[in-house]
Design brief:
This protein is of the alpha/beta class. The chain contains 13 helices and 13 strands. Bound molecules: the ligand O=C(O)[C@H]1O[C@H](OP(=O)(O)OP(=O)(O)OC[C@H]2O[C@@H](n3ccc(=O)[nH]c3=O)[C@H](O)[C@@H]2O)[C@H](O)[C@@H](O)[C@H]1O. The ligand O=C(O)[C@H]1O[C@H](OP(=O)(O)OP(=O)(O)OC[C@H]2O[C@@H](n3ccc(=O)[nH]c3=O)[C@H](O)[C@@H]2O)[C@H](O)[C@@H](O)[C@H]1O binds next to β8. It catalyses: UDP-alpha-D-glucuronate = UDP-alpha-D-galacturonate.
């Protein structure tokens, strides 16, 4: 009985993944042809696709440009918006910071649900102009970024390109759009850096001028840049300080994801610990909870008001913590994974170097609760169970040793 259901589970997975691969391939070929055609031949089919994807299908719906739509959070937010009838157009450059194949599978998933992702870079001003000339976006959900705290040590330039230059290019376009969209964008809980306030949990009104990584500094800089565009050009801005977001279709570079992969492969995992031997802890937050916070931010964003001298309104400028208000140590994260997999991890405990990682994070979420109705409902045990289920479905336990994530 168990064997039969396992076999049918496995064959359903194979069929679904094969279908996704097929859609991915077709989408890649079409998008390759189309992105070329758009500029060479002014392709009608490309324009039809973006119009259809961004088309609003409910009363009082919104039309959202989602940057980083093939990313982890971008995929989930795009699906949530599309399923309630909003118009959604994705933009993603499919960079290879982690496996582009996972991003392409996410794109295929979105394609099935009617969300089209334009393959392009936000720094491409010409492309942005075409998109904004074609669609009157009411909102921009800016999630595209160079992520990863550790990678910033290796390649700081990628963070300047993606988190600062791109942000300015996008804001410039939004500033001159008519109507101007409202902008919700991804900042980070890492802006709290060294706990100079000497208090937990971290609140939005705390000082954030001691970042400990290039990643965090680019996110903090983004908060200053967006504030300038809000004051000078009247753009409505909401910055979301995401804490450690996890879940199905997640990012392979994150600890929980690499831990499961190594445990299944029987490889050791590295668990960092502070110099004084205390465990590191994070405010892990499940993707579905974060998506609700993102959607509520769009719904309550208010309007951009422009920069004319006669304007008598001020555009909103908001910042919210999106965490779980309930930190968990990294060793506890490992033991939850072990329980779910019924496997023991081989753990190397390593004292953390001065590499820019924070020791502890806990979000105060009362402002988001009050203004957005944000209320996380998924604890780490429940969320990781969902993640493990997805991981085994997506990569398949028996084949995991041959798969490259
Ligand atoms: O915006 C943010 O706030 C960031 O959130 C996330 O950063 P973090 O909260 O640091 O998550 P993550 O890397 O999963 O490490 C979790 C814990 O495991 C520890 N850790 C990590 C790796 C390892 O091999 N061993 C280990 O102990 C590690 O020291 C830490 O204590 C995103 O990754 C980052 O891209 C960015 O989005």
């Amino acid at each position: 009985m168990i064997r039969t259901s396992r076999r049918s589970f496995s064959s359903n997975r194979t069929i679904f993944l094969s279908a996704l691969v097929l859609v991915t391939l077709t989408a890649s070929i079409l998008s390759f042809i189309d992105s070329g055609e758009r500029f060479l031949y002014n392709s009608i089919s490309w324009e039809t696709k973006i119009r259809s994807s961004a088309h609003i299908r409910r009363p009082n719906g919104i039309s959202v440009l989602v940057t980083g739509a093939a990313g982890f959070i971008g995929t989930h937010v795009s699906l949530a918006l599309k399923s309630r009838g909003d118009g959604v157009l994705g933009l993603d450059n499919f960079d290879n910071y982690y496996a582009p194949s996972l991003k392409k599978t996410r794109r295929a998933l979105l394609d099935i649900h009617g969300v089209f992702i334009v393959d392009g870079d936000i720094n491409d001003r010409r492309l942005l102009a075409v998109l904004f000339d074609t669609i009157a976006f009411t909102h921009v959900m800016h999630l595209a970024a160079q992520v990863g705290v550790q990678y910033a040590v290796e390649n700081p330039y990628a963070y300047v390109h993606s988190n600062i230059a791109s942000l300015v290019t996008l804001l410039e376009r939004c500033k001159s759009a008519d109507p101007q969209p409202a902008i919700v964008w991804a900042s980070s809980g890492s802006v709290y850096g060294v706990n100079i306030n000497n208090k937990v949990p971290f609140s939005e009104s705390d000082r954030v001028d001691r970042p400990v990584s290039i990643y965090a500094s680019t996110k903090r800089t983004g908060e200053e840049i967006t504030l300038t565009y809000n004051r000078v050009y009247g753009l409505s801005i909401t910055g979301l300080r995401f804490f450690t977001v996890y879940g199905p279709w997640g990012r392979p570079d994150m600890a929980y994801f690499s831990f499961i992969r190594n445990i299944l492969l029987g490889k050791p995992i590295t668990v960092y610990r502070a110099k004084n031997h205390t465990d590191l802890a994070r405010d892990f937050i499940y993707i579905d909870d974060v998506v609700k916070g993102c959607v509520a931010s769009l719904d309550t964003s208010g309007r951009s008001v422009g920069s004319g001298r006669l304007r008598n309104e001020t555009a909103p400028y908001r910042i919210f913590n999106l965490g779980n208000a309930s930190p968990v140590t990294v060793p506890t994260l490992v033991s939850i994974l072990e329980e779910n997999l019924r496997m023991k991890a081989t753990t190397n405990v390593v004292e953390m170097s001065e590499n820019g990682d924070d020791l502890f994070a806990q979000a105060n979420i009362s402002l988001a609760e009050k203004e957005l109705g944000y209320k996380p409902t998924t604890d780490l045990e429940t969320g990781l169970k969902e993640f493990v289920k997805w991981y085994l479905w997506y990569y398949g336990k028996p084949f995991v040793q041959n798969r490259n994530v």
